Known about the structure:
Strand content: over 45%
Structural class: mainly beta
Number of strands: 11
Mean pLDDT: 96
Order of helices and strands: EEEEEEEEEEE
Low-confidence stretches: none
Radius of gyration: 13 Å
Distance between the termini: 40 Å
Helix content: under 10%
Number of helices: 0
Amino acid sequence: QVHLVESGGGLVQTGGSLRLSCAASGRIFSIQSMGWFRQAPGKGREFVATVGWSSGLTSYAGAVKGRFTISRDNAKNTVYLQMNSLKAEDTAVYLCRIVTSEVISWGQGTQVTVSS
């Protein structure tokens, strides 16, 4: 079983920055990708960013492109999300997802609140 622990969420003013972290542990075999999704109150879960574990190739949602940067530390099985120029509409629970050769697992999420 794969266990994900997210951290780094919090309250920030519009225009501010936050850095999220997600560390994976447990029975991890051949990570294919790790990424971030978010869910705002009353809305569905939406894709934010993902990174290929071997290739390092990244993909972003249009709403965050140019403001958010996803990165990884392969040795630590950890993915990061640097969020800059935050907007009120970025307010959501941010969830980490890992895709391995065996499973897809989700973290519990970390709250990000951007006040205007």
